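Feature request disguised as a bug: please show the residue count (305) next to ABC transporter domain-containing protein in the output. Example input:
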Amino acid sequence: FRERKVAGAALVWKELSVSVRDGRRPGRVVRGSSGYALPGTLTVVMGPARSGKSTLLRAISGRLRGAERMYGEVFVNGVKSPLPYGSYGYVDRDDVLIESLTVREMLYYSALLQLPGVFSSKKSFVEDAIAAMSLGDYADKLIGGHCFTKRLPTGERRRVSIARELVMRPHVLFIDEPLYHLDSVSALLLMVTLKKLASTGCTVIFTMYQSSTEVFGLFDRICLLSNGNTLFFGETLACLQHFSNAGFPCPIMQSPSDHFLRAINTDFDRIIAMCKNLQVSFGFILTSIFIFIFSPNFLENVLFL
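Example output, currently without the count:
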């Protein structure tokens, strides 16, 4: 990925629905979603918890679980077909790494297991992945975290998980919650790195619950979900205009993602009502205590004990 261009793939999904046939969450978790992701861009699937973000990502990438069934169409470069092996990478939300290895060793193992050909060519793929994810300073450090060994920082562990997929030089990269458990600085740095990766031609599509204003500004397109329904798909600036036209303009000092979640999540109204009820109840209790303490009978009893 060092000055290397990637032939990305254009993804289109039409009227995509996913149903789950298990006892915990039966029914459709994604309903008639349509959208696209283009080479050289960042496309985010955003929504509140249990809105179907991860399920939609798995459906587009062809990685649905046993109880999940997909309806609809997915096109790759205009052809209705699944993504071929080696053409895409998929990064889960939770990092599963071999903690007794260094970063470079971890990526070598990944290359040996996934790539055909001789080891010398695989080595260059590994070094390119290290450079692409800015892991040069950590390449020879243990991933760690077991037997009292020093653990690699969370942000760098996330980068290793992504680099593990980059050794395949994928045309499309899927990431489930790339900023999971990251602080604001690490989150911004990682998104800048992914933006640079996309600029090489790779198609990057990922899920996210919320983001800062700075991170949101790096996105090219947004697919906004709520209860499995696609409320908006398009460019991020168009999403802001869409909500403004609907009577929900984004406040100047508020993150757009926080504003969208507040507007589409009915749980906020329920929580605010609960807080108001608690505030009224608490105020009533304080007032009652105040009246009781400063009543003449109470003061008389205290003063003349």
